[in-house]
Write a structure and sequence with these properties.
heterotrimer; A alpha+beta (89); B alpha/beta (294); C alpha/beta (392); B: 294 residues; alpha/beta; Rossmann fold; globular; C: 392 residues; 2 domains; seven-stranded mixed beta sheet; 14 helices; 41% helix; binds thiamine diphosphate; binds iron/sulfur cluster; binds magnesium ion
Chain lengths: 89, 294, 392
């Protein structure tokens, strides 16, 4: 019965925020220079969105679905491997 | 690429929000076997716009000032269900929730000795309601209720010392942490969660919107707060300071202040800056390793 | 076998029979003996329960909210100022659909500070979304707690329930009480089964923000539940009667109503005196009946219509008022009767506030007044000397 619990609208299922692609907010977007990137993980630790991963093989990857373009990663990168470029919309 | 984690993207925090970073770091350190009660504030609002939630652990929000008491009830309920070893309980609050409106609740929780890790996400004002001052707003920081007026410039009170108040309650583990030092922050969370009884960790979480700094400076701002001495990082165990983050060459407070519009009204006034510098200097003297507090 | 027990202690013992798993409450007259007695019961190992001492009623309500969302049966008790301090949590608890049971020892609200009985505390939070039950005597108050848990925890309901009993008049009265056997209570009230709870195996988020696009629906859901839950409340009363052999009515109780022309309407302990008055006046040839509102929220609109339409006169006795408005119960009754046929004339009296005595003779005097004229929001029993002093 719809009336009883309003269950579906009062309770959230784990990680459903992933449906909200915050990448659309971006004004600048980060680009990783894989030649410079040493996969140290500084940016991964510092990204407020948690949308970065890294490994020696892949170097740093960014999930642009969620990246808000804050520029934190570019600022912390010790190798200046990340640059922020203007989004062309 | 995205699978469900303990704390997920898609939340609506401002770009570069130090609070969302702090929350992610805390959750990744804590892992999946935790239950979180969360006060009203930015963190709650930007993570749970129904029906979506950024949380991947059991999480509950009730009011602005009661996450501590909720945690007490949750611990009791787990015990009654024989599940006390299934999950660790954490209570989250902003600086306003912690130092102001919810303080009585937190004091009660500490007095009872409840097995809860309370994390204060200190962004130094009531951000969710538009940057009003709290008991943890720094001296002379401008907010929408402690404005940079022509007679008084910014917040006239000093930051309330909640870590010391916690330690005075006999809280087993008290620590300060900051988004500028992610490993340190995560180690403190892990250490706290391994301890039975009340724990308190206060995390300085930069807020580009409320502090008026560039969104890319989240980490640098956090580091500067520590390096200037304005937000010392330390641990208190059983009433004794057991650890202080060493700052080999303290930086002048201007370096920190000048990056933020909330201090714009004082950076060109050496007298006012000197007052802030005095606070930083005193902090370096106050927090020393092995000092017995209580 | 009946045992002469003080009202509050009897309630504490009955609550213990309901096996709450987490209790948190804060002392306030005239509720205090409930917290004290429950702490003794738990300390003596007679109830396996987490009894949590807190620093305020706000904390007590928050602790039981946390316990409830974590999946256990939770209980609290309060009164007056304490209830108002809980108010914010109560709205939240109802909105989160948590089946906590709370006892309110009804007491006046400050200023002036006054520890004695009326209903201004509980009626100030009547819009929170709790189910409100009112007990006529201590046996009913005890029995009502069993029913309260049963109603609250029904998956068709999932709302907090408040059991109201008049401060001092009931709370501190010693009455012979029949305590149900534990085995029967367990049968009537099996272990609480939450619909979902905080659980690492199924990590859900509770208490989400609901914007303009969703909030309206959550309120609608509560309102709809209030419309359908009378069936659950009735069944709880019927099942109770079957198992324990005591009947207090369901949402309402009618006393000598078949041929009544004048109907006295109220809630709580005053009903007993009203029943005596009805008997006395009937002996004198007046056809008087009594309508007891046992369940105030949801308001039993259909029952009230059925009960009052066709009668000559309804006299409502109120121990609360909405200052600047009208008597609170009166407003509900008038709203229920609007547009119905054969609606009785209605007189309503505000009396007994802050513990002012109400004797049988007062109720008879009220009937006489109402017979002469239709009185609206009439303060009964004012001290003329004090009124004069205030006028100076
Ligand atoms: C009882 C009550 N008073 C006021 C508010 C409004 N309010 C909601 S969040 C908030 C400020 C939150 O500040 P803080 O705890 O520092 O968290 P932040 O948003 O800064 O992270 C206020 C004042 C409320 N929700 N409840
Ligand atoms: S720009 Fe900001 S959000 Fe985007 S990847 Fe870098 S740190 Fe993360
Ligand atoms: S206002 Fe500040 S704390 Fe709140 S979401 Fe924005 S950056 Fe984060
Ligand atoms: Mg804040």
């Amino acid at each position: 019965m719809a009336s009883i619990r309003a269950k579906n609208i009062l309770i959230g299922k784990p990680g459903t925020s992933l449906a909200n692609k915050t990448g659309g907010w971006r004004v600048f977007y980060p680009v990783v220079d894989k030649a410079k990137c040493v996969a140290c993980g500084m940016c991964v630790m510092s990204c407020p969105e948690g949308c970065m991963t890294t490994s020696k093989e892949t170097k740093t990857l960014i999930d642009l679905d969620y990246c808000k373009g804050c520029g934190v990663c570019a600022k912390v990168c010790p190798k200046t491997a990340i640059s922020m470029l203007k989004e062309e919309k | 690429m995205s699978t469900v984690k303990v704390f997920n993207a898609g939340h609506t925090a401002c770009s570069g929000c130090g609070l969302s970073l702090a929350a992610r770091l805390v959750m990744e350190a804590a892992g999946p076997n935790v239950i979180v009660s969360n006060s009203t504030g930015c963190l709650e609002v930007f993570t749970t716009r129904s029906p979506q939630t950024a949380w991947g652990v059991p999480w509950v929000h009730s009011l602005f000032e009661n996450s501590g008491a909720l945690a007490t009830g949750i611990v009791a309920a787990l015990k009654m269900q024989g599940k006390e070893n299934e999950a660790r309980v954490m209570a989250f609050g902003g600086d306003g929730s912690t130092a102001d409106i919810g303080f009585g609740i937190i004091s009660g929780m500490w007095e009872r000795g409840d097995d809860v890790l309370y994390v204060c996400f200190d962004n130094e004002a009531y951000m969710n309601t538009g940057i009003q001052r709290s008991g943890l707003t720094p001296f002379l920081g401008a907010t929408s209720t402690s404005p940079a007026g022509s007679v008084t410039g910014g917040n006239q009170k000093q930051k309330k010392n909640i870590p010391m108040i916690a330690a005075a309650h006999g809280v087993k583990y008290v620590a300060t942490a900051c988004v500028g030092y992610q490993r340190d922050l995560q180690n403190k969370i892990k250490k706290a969660l391994a301890i039975k009884g009340p724990k308190y960790v206060q995390i300085l979480a930069t807020c580009p919107l409320g502090w008026g700094n560039d969104s890319s400076l989240t980490i640098q701002m956090g580091k500067l707060a520590v390096e200037t001495g304005l937000f010392p990082l330390f641990e208190v165990e059983e009433g004794k300071i057991t650890n202080v983050m060493n700052v080999a060459k303290p930086k002048p407070v201007e370096e920190y202040l000048k990056l933020q519009t909330r201090f714009r009204h004082i950076v060109k006034n050496p007298e006012e800056v000197a007052k802030v510098q005095a606070i930083a200097d005193a902090n370096f003297k106050r927090y020393t390793k092995d000092k017995v507090l209580f | 076998m009946k045992k002469v027990t003080e009202g509050l202690k009897a309630i504490a013992e009955t609550v213990a029979l309901c096996r709450p798993e987490v209790i948190s409450a804060y002392p306030i007259t005239p509720q205090t003996h409930i917290v004290e007695e429950l702490s003794v019961i738990v300390a003596n190992g007679k109830l396996k329960c987490e009894f949590i001492n807190v620093e305020s009623e706000f904390a007590a309500a928050s602790v039981v909210l946390g316990a409830s969302v974590a999946g256990v049966r939770a209980y609290s008790a309060t009164s007056s100022q304490g209830l108002l301090l809980m108010a914010e949590v109560l709205f939240n608890m109802a909105g989160m659909r948590l089946p906590v049971v709370i006892t309110d020892a009804n007491r006046a609200v400050s200023a002036p500070i006054n520890i004695w009985n009326d209903w201004q505390d509980t009626l100030a939070i009547r819009d929170a979304g709790l189910i409100h039950l009112f007990a006529e005597d201590n046996q009913e108050a005890c029995d009502m707690h069993l029913q309260a848990f049963k109603i609250a925890e029904d998956h068709e309901v999932m709302l907090p329930v408040m059991v109201n009993l008049d401060g001092f008049i009931l709370t501190h009265a010693f009455d012979p009480i029949e305590f149900p056997e534990q085995a029967l209570v367990d049968k009537y009230l099996p272990k609480y089964v939450p619909m979902e709870k905080l659980d690492v195996k199924n990590p859900l988020s509770f208490g989400l923000m609901g914007g303009p696009d969703r909030y309206l629906e959550t309120r609608y859901a509560m309102a709809e539940t209030m419309k359908t839950c009378p069936a659950v409340i009735r069944k709880a009363a019927q099942d109770f009667n079957k198992m324990f052999g005591r009947n207090y009515g369901e949402l309402i109780e009618e006393y000598k109503m078949e041929d009544a022309e004048i109907v006295l309407v109220s809630m709580g302990s005053i009903i007993s005196s009203m029943k005596d008055v009805a008997d006395d006046l009937r002996a004198a040839g007046k056809k008087v009946g009594v309508l007891k509102i046992r369940c105030y929220r949801p308001f039993p609109v259909q029952d009230v219509i059925k009960s009052l339409c066709g009668k000559k006169k309804a006299i409502i006795l109120e121990k609360a008022l909405s200052i600047g408005g009208v008597g609170i119960l009166t407003a509900d009754i008038k709203a229920a009767l609007y547009g119905q046929k054969n609606v009785p004339e209605i007189s309503d009296f505000i009396l007994g506030l802050g513990g002012r005595d109400i004797r049988i003779s007062d109720i008879k005097a009220i009937v006489a007044l109402a017979e002469k004229a239709n009185l609206k929001g009439e303060f009964y029993g004012l001290d003329p000397k004090l009124v004069e002093e205030m006028d100076k």
